[in-house]
């Protein structure tokens, strides 16, 4: 049904229908028009046979024959009365009125003028079609973060450049009975001036991180109330996802339910859903454009960033706040990942626990926080005099289709993702000289990603690869956004941060491709940022200096 209805909007199908009708009514015989609209299948088939035979031309006959193969052409003649139309057969009703184009075709059918009408309709479609989106470029004009290494992009990146670690013993709850007692926990966090006190008490922390980082991105982008008043709110959107959502709110609700449902937080359901953070931010700002969340585990942020850019490229938005947020350093979150045997147990030396590509790595370290980018259509940004940090060139998604948590052994999914991202960005692999890797410090994941990167960029002597997770741990659904901020900061500053704790590189790892233990100067031409998630979700996005 959907295929048939959508085909009615196709100029090709309209033209074919018109061709059938024009040939059928070439003699102007009104009785043929009545026959075509009679609804009797046998008479319709005989008439269409005449239509084919009367053409006298191989090309027209082929055209008519091909027309009969289209579902909509059959539907077109299935009306039971003169006022019927194709949509009645699709929706099971004869009461649906003809649309403008169908009425024009029917009026012209008896006189053989349907072909001319179809051509007119095609011209109208060309005039009324959406403006070309080829020239719509996407730029980054603001950034906001909440991390264990800082609450603004400058402080955050400066700590990364210095090689400071944000990993420490967990203080938020008693985890003495857990085999893992370390995380990239945010020790000090305030919503003052950003979120209303009443909401701060009720919301899950993932939403609070999201709201503050989102508003900080606006402030960083120079979007004051006066500036925002000039925005078209219908073309401003929010797409900030989460891998785990409001797990603390949901956990607290379960604990309350053990006593009585009357003790449950009345907001436990909406505040636990992954979409509510974006929704609440949009409500606060009055933004009525695209608004939803994506949850693809640890690849969430990249999915949100690329989809936001596509909304701008397609003309559906001029401004998008996008990224990710997660806060699951709580008993159920820690316990869940411990049960997966995914976490490092280097409790006696927290700052050394996250060590991507090192042969002594023993699992990832949980982190928490949020990262938000303010993406904007280039001309929109220039018109308001915004500072442009970098340009978003493109990206891609693929699926390993292999295992729930393990990477595909041959790395085909990651390689395909990178190659498609390069194609979407319109650049060659030689143009990329910096990669912010997913590299979580897991035994299998790090090596498979490294092999994929070596396959794609190993012949580039300028390539440099690092892992932000070596210092802040793995922020799950927020990881990609925070790492996108680090990637843009590398473009802005000309410095790439070190890989800390890489003391004994794994077998097969060429350290010439990796940034060393100290920050390094790099004139970034184009930067690729990877994020992969449980379920085999792969994502790669590409940024470059704005020129």
TrEMBL record:
The keyword Acyltransferase applies. GO terms for molecular function: 3-oxoacyl-[acyl-carrier-protein] synthase activity. Residues 1-26 form the signal peptide. It is an enzyme of class 2 (transferase). It comes from Thlaspi arvense. Transmembrane segments: none annotated. Its EC number is 2.3.1.41. This is beta-ketoacyl-[acyl-carrier-protein] synthase I. One of its GO terms (biological process) is fatty acid biosynthetic process. CDD domains: KAS_I_II (cd00834). One of its GO terms (cellular component) is mitochondrion. Residues 135-545 form the Ketosynthase family 3 (KS3) domain. Belongs to the thiolase-like superfamily. Beta-ketoacyl-ACP synthases family.
């Amino acid at each position: 049904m959907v295929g048939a209805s959508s085909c009615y909007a196709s100029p090709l199908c309209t033209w074919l229908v018109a061709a059938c009708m024009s040939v059928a009514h070439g003699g102007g015989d009104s009785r043929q028009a009545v026959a075509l609209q009679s609804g009797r299948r046998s008479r319709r088939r005989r008439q269409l046979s005449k239509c084919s035979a009367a053409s006298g031309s191989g090309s027209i006959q082929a055209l008519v024959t091909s027309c009969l193969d289209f579902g909509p052409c059959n539907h077109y003649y299935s009306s039971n009365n003169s006022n019927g139309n194709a949509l009645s057969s699709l929706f099971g009703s004869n009461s649906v009125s003809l649309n403008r184009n169908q009425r024009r075709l029917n009026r012209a059918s008896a006189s053989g003028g349907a072909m001319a009408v179809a051509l007119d309709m095609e011209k109208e479609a060309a005039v009324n079609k959406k403006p070309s989106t080829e020239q719509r470029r996407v730029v980054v004009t603001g950034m906001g973060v909440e991390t264990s290494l800082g609450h603004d992009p400058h402080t955050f990146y400066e700590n990364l450049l210095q090689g400071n670690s944000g990993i420490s013993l967990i203080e938020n709850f008693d985890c003495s009975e857990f085999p893992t007692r370390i995380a990239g926990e945010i020790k000090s966090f305030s919503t003052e001036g950003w979120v209303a006190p009443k909401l701060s008490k009720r919301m899950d922390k993932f939403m609070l991180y999201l709201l503050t980082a989102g508003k900080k991105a606006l402030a960083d982008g120079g979007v004051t109330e006066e500036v925002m008043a000039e925005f078209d709110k219908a073309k401003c959107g929010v797409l900030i996802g989460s891998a785990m959502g409001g797990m603390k709110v949901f956990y607290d609700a379960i604990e309350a339910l053990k006593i009585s449902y009357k003790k449950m937080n009345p907001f436990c359901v909406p505040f636990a859903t992954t979409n509510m953070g974006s929704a609440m931010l949009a409500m606060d700002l009055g933004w009525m454009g695209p608004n939803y969340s994506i949850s693809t585990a640890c690849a969430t942020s990249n999915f949100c960033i690329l989809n936001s850019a596509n909304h701008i490229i397609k003309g559906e938005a001029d401004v998008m706040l996008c990224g990710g947020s997660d806060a699951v350093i709580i008993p159920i979150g820690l316990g869940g990942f411990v049960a997966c045997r995914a976490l490092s147990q280097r409790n006696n030396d927290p700052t050394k626990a996250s060590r991507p590509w090192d042969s002594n790595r023993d699992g990832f370290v949980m982190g928490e926080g949020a990262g938000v980018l303010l993406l904007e259509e280039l001309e929109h940004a220039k018109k308001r005099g915004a500072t442009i940090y970098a340009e978003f060139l493109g990206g891609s998604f693929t699926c390993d289709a292999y295992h729930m948590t393990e990477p595909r052994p041959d790395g085909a999914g990651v390689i395909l993702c990178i190659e498609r991202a390069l194609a979407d960005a319109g650049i060659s692999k030689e143009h990329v000289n910096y990669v912010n890797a997913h590299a979580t410090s897991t035994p299998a994941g790090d090596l498979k990603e490294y092999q994929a990167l070596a396959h794609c960029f190993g012949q580039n002597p300028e390539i440099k690869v690092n892992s932000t997770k070596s210092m802040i741990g793995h922020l799950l659904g927020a990881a990609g956004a925070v790492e996108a901020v680090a990637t843009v900061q590398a473009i802005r500053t000309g410095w790439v941060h070190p890989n800390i704790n890489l003391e004994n590189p794994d077998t097969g790892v060429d350290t010439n491709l990796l940034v060393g233990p100290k920050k390094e100067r790099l004139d970034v031409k184009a930067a690729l940022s990877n994020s992969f998630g449980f379920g085999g979700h792969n994502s790669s996005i590409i940024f470059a200096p704005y020129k």
